[in-house]
Amino acid sequence: MNYQYPIDETWSKEEIIDVVNFFSLMEKAYESKVNRRNVLTLYRRLKEIIPSKSEEKRVFAEFEKESGYSSYKVVKKARETSEEVFSM
C-alpha cells in the first residue's frame, strides 16, 4: 500500500480509526474475501462520521483515485448479495 486513506483532521481519534477500518475492509474485499455484515456495519458507522452524501462521494473518489478500489461497488454488492462472504 503506497497511498494514504482520506482522513479529515477534524475527526476524533476514534472516528479516524473507524474510517481506517472501513477503508481497510474495502481493500480486503478486492484482495481476498469479506463478511457482508461487517461491510454494512462499518458503512453505517462511516455514515455517522460522514453524514453528507456529497462528502461521502468525495472521500470515496479520493480513496479510489489513490487505491484503485471502489468503496461504492463494495457497499453496493454487500447490499445486493445474499452471500454471507464475498469478494470483488
UniProtKB/TrEMBL annotation:
Entries under SUPFAM superfamilies matching the protein: BH2638-like (SSF158504)
Domain of life: Bacteria
Pfam families in UniProt: UPF0223
Similarity section: Belongs to the UPF0223 family.
HAMAP family reported for this sequence: UPF0223 (MF_01041)
Protein name from the UniProt record: UPF0223 protein ACFSUN_05570
